[in-house]
Amino acid sequence: MLAALRWAAWGLSATIAMIMLMQPVSVQAQLLLGVTIIIAMLVLWTFFSSISIARQLFIAFGSFVVMRYVYWRATSTLPPLSDPIGFGFGFTLLMAELYCFLILAISLIVNADPLKRPPMPVDPDNELPTVDVFVPSYNEDEYILATTIAAAKSMDYPPDKLTVWLLDDGGTDQKCNDSNPEKAVAALARRLSLQKLCSELGAQYLTRAKNEHAKAGNMNNGLKHSNGEVIVVFDADHAPFREFLRETIGHFKRDPKLFLVQTPHVFLNPDPIERNLQTWERMPSENEMFYSVTQRGLDKWNGSFFCGSAALLRRAALETTGGFSGITITEDCETAFELHAKGWTSVFVDKPLIAGLQPETFSSFIGQRSRWCQGMFQILMLKNPSLKLGLNFIQRIAYLSSMTFWFFPLPRLIFMFAPLIYIFFDTKIFVSNVDEAIAYTSTYIVVNMLLQNFLYGRVRWPWISELYEYVQGVYLSKAIFSVVLSPRKPTFNVTAKGLSLDKDHLSELAWPYFAIYALLMFGGCVAFYRYMFEPGVTNLMLIVGLWNTFNLIIAGAALGVVSERRAVDRHPRLGIERSAALSANGRVVPVIVINVSTGGCGIRPVEGALPGDITKGRLHIVPLGNRVTDESLPVVLRHAQSPETNYYGFEFDGITNREYNALADLMYGEASALQRFLDHRRSHKNLFAGTFQMLIWGVTEPIRAFSLLIRGKTAQSIVDAPKETSTAEQKVDKTVDATLDPLQTITQRLRQEKADAAAAAAASGIPEPRSA
C-alpha cells in the first residue's frame, strides 16, 4: 500500500511539473528559474544531505530542470521540415539526447534510495548448508589458479561441508585430441599439471569431453558432478578472503526463496584507463559506481543480478531452469533474469570479499567490454524484459536499465560528431540563440552534473563517465550492430589476464582515436575562422564551437588512454598489516608485512634494521584468530630502501603448490585490508575540480601520445623488437621442454597406433571404433 501511494505521489508530482514547464515564460524568467533551482539544490546538498526527504527533493528539483530542457529541445529547437537534411540530423541528435534522458530517468528511479542491508552473520547453532565452490578456468596461468584455489580452501567454513572444484576447460578431451600436435600436447600437459595442483591443495579437478556452451556449459558440467546445496562461483583470477562465506551464507537461511547472494568485484590492478592516466591510487575505479550504488539500488527492488563471480547460488533454484543459462554470452545476467522471472529473490552484500585482476591492455579491455555489450543486447533482443512473464514492473525497469545502458556507444559518437555537421557544412541541427542556450542548455548541464555528483560523487569523478563511454564507443558500436544483425552469432571470448607491459607504446587499437582527434582539431580551427572572419555567421557558431572544444578535450584525454604505459609490477600488491617472523641463518626476526602480492612482499622489522647477512630465508606468518598453523614461505631479498624507511622488498623464491596455502592466508586473511584500500581512493571531487582535471588531461595527454607516434612506439614495433631472455626465463623454458618432450613422444605414439589401427580396420572392412 505504501509503495502504491509513493508511486502515486511521484506520478502526481510529475504531472504538475509537466503542466508548469509547458507554460509560456520568457527566456529571462527561465534563466532565473534555473539558477534558483541550482541554488536550492546546492543548499539541500550542503546542509540537509543526510535527511531522506532532502534527498528526494534534490532529485525532484533536478528532474524538473531536466524535463524542462527536454521539452524545450523537442518543441522549439528542431530545424523545419522544409530543411530535410537539417531536420534529419537534428532529429537524430534529439533521439540521442532522449536516450540519455531515459537512462537518467531510470537510474534516478532505481538509485533514488539504495538499500543498506544489515550484516547477516552465520549462526553457529544452525545447520550450515554444504557448499561447492566452482573455479571455471580456460587459459589462466597456474600461479593464478593456485592462489584462487588455496584462498577458496582457506575460507572460514567447516571443511567437511566445503568442496572446491577446478573446472578446467583448457584441458578437455577435445583440446587434448586437437589436430595440431603442439596444441594437443600443451593441453595434456596443462591437465596433468593442474591435476597435481588440485591434489596437493585438496581440491577436485574436473574437465569434460567438449568445450560446449563456454562458461555456462563448464559450470553445468560441474553441477552434474557435485551435490552441494549452495554453489559459489569465483572466476579463476578472483580470490576470496577468509570471511567470504561467513559474511554471506546466512542470507540463505533467512529466505528460502533466495537464489543469489552477489558481492562486489574489487581489483588489485588498474584497468588501462586508470594505469595510462595514472589515477589508480587516487580515483575510484569505474566499476565502483555499479557495485556500491547501482547494485544496492537494484537490490531494493529485488533486481540485483548475478555478475559471473563472487556470488553464491542455491542449487535448488538453478535446477528449476536446467542450470546456468547459456543462450547468450552473458550467462550470469541471463541466469538471474530467468530465476527472477520464476519468483526467486536475490541479495546484494555491499562488502568487498574478493580481489581479482582486470585486463591490463586497452585491447583486452575493449574485448571484455564488447562481450558484455553483446551479451546484454542478446538478452534484450531474445528475452525482452518488457515482455517477460513473472517479472514485476520495477524489475522490468531494472533489467531494461542494465541492458539499454549498453546502447551508449551510438549516442556518444553522435555527440562527438554532431557539431562538425554545422561547422563544415553549415547545416543547422538545432535552432537556438545564445540566450536560450544559457537559459536551458547550460542550466541543464550543470543540474545533470550535480545529480551525478550527488548520487555517485564518492565513486565517480565528474566527466569520467563521458571519457569511458567515448573510448569504448569507438569499437563497441560495431559490436552493437553485429548483435542487431545476428543476435545468436556472438561467441564467448575469454578475457586475457596477467599480461605484462614492458615498455611504453601505442595500443594497436589507437589509430581511430588519432583520426577523430585530428578531425575535431581541424573542426575547431574552421569554427574559429568562420566565427571571426566569415560574414553572416551567427552566435550559433560560438555555441557549436564550444561544444566541439569540449569534445576535443575528451578526445585528447582518450589519446592518453590508448598510450600504454609500462607496467612496473606484474604482480599487483595489496597493502596489509600482518605480524610474521623472518628466519634466516639461525636467527628469527619479528617483522610486519605491509604489502603482499603473488610474487613477493614488503616487510618492516619490528625493531631496528635487518642484519646485513640476511638475504634469504623463510617468512613465518602469525595465524589469525584461533587458527593453528606452521605455514611459511621461502623468500629472497630483492631490495632495501633507506634506513629511514626501514623497508625491505622480498621475492617469493620457488613456492611449491602446498605453500600457496600460506600465501593465501597472508594475502587473503583479512578483507578489511581491501576495504581500507577502497576508502583511500573514494575521494569526492567537485564539478570544478573534475572539470579542471579533465582539461589537464585533454591538453597534456595528446603530447605524450603524439611523441610515441613520432618515435614509432606502436604495439607491433614492441612485438617485433628482439627480446633478451633472462636466465630465469631460460630455466622455465628448459623445464617446460623437459615436461613436454615425453608427452610429445606419448602423443605421437598414440597417434601412430591409432592410424595403424584405422588402416588395419579399413583393410579388414571393420569400422573404426569411436571415443565417447
Helix content: 40-55%
**What summary fits the major beta sheet?**
7 strands, mixed
**How many strand segments?**
17
Shape: globular
Strands ordered across the widest β-sheet: 3-2-1-4-7-6-8
Work out the helix count: 26
User: Hey, roughly how much beta strand do the residues contain?
Assistant: 5-15%
Calculate the mean pLDDT score and round it: 88
Number of domains: 4
SSE layout and pairing:
Elements: H1 2-21, H2 27-48, H3 52-76, H4 84-111, E1 131-137, H5 142-153, E2 162-168, H6 173-176, H7 181-201, E3 204-206, H8 214-225, E4 230-233, E5 239-240, H9 244-248, H10 250-254, E6 258-262, H11 272-276, H12 287-300, E7 311-314, H13 315-320, H14 331-341, E8 345-348, E9 354-355, H15 362-382, H16 393-404, H17 409-425, H18 434-456, H19 464-485, E10 505-506, H20 511-533, H21 540-561, E11 563-564, E12 574-584, E13 587-596, E14 600-605, E15 616-621, E16 632-640, E17 648-652, H22 660-667, H23 672-681, H24 687-710, H25 715-720, H26 727-764
Helix pairs in contact: 1-3, 2-3, 2-18, 3-4, 3-18, 4-16, 4-17, 5-7, 5-22, 7-26, 15-16, 15-19, 17-19, 17-20, 17-21, 19-21, 20-21, 21-24
Overview of the molecule:
- 41% of the residues are buried.
- Helix 17 packs across helix 21.
- The chain has four domains: 2-112 and 407-564, no CATH class; 131-267 and 299-350, Spore Coat Polysaccharide Biosynthesis Protein SpsA, Chain A (Alpha-Beta Complex), CATH 3.90.550; 574-668, Beta Barrel (Thrombin, subunit H), CATH 2.40.10; 729-772, no CATH class.
- Strand 1 (131-137), helix 5 (142-153) and strand 2 (162-168) form a beta-alpha-beta unit.
- It is globular, with a radius of gyration of 29 Å.
- A seven-stranded mixed sheet has the order 3-2-1-4-7-6-8, with helices on both faces. The protein has a six-stranded antiparallel beta barrel with strand order 12-13-14-17-16-15. Strands 5-9 form a two-stranded antiparallel ribbon.
- It contains 26 helices and 17 strands.
- It is of the alpha+beta class and 772 residues long.
- Pathway: Glycan metabolism; bacterial cellulose biosynthesis.
- Its cofactor is Mg(2+).
- Its EC number is 2.4.1.12.
- It catalyses: [(1->4)-beta-D-glucosyl](n) + UDP-alpha-D-glucose = [(1->4)-beta-D-glucosyl](n+1) + UDP + H(+).
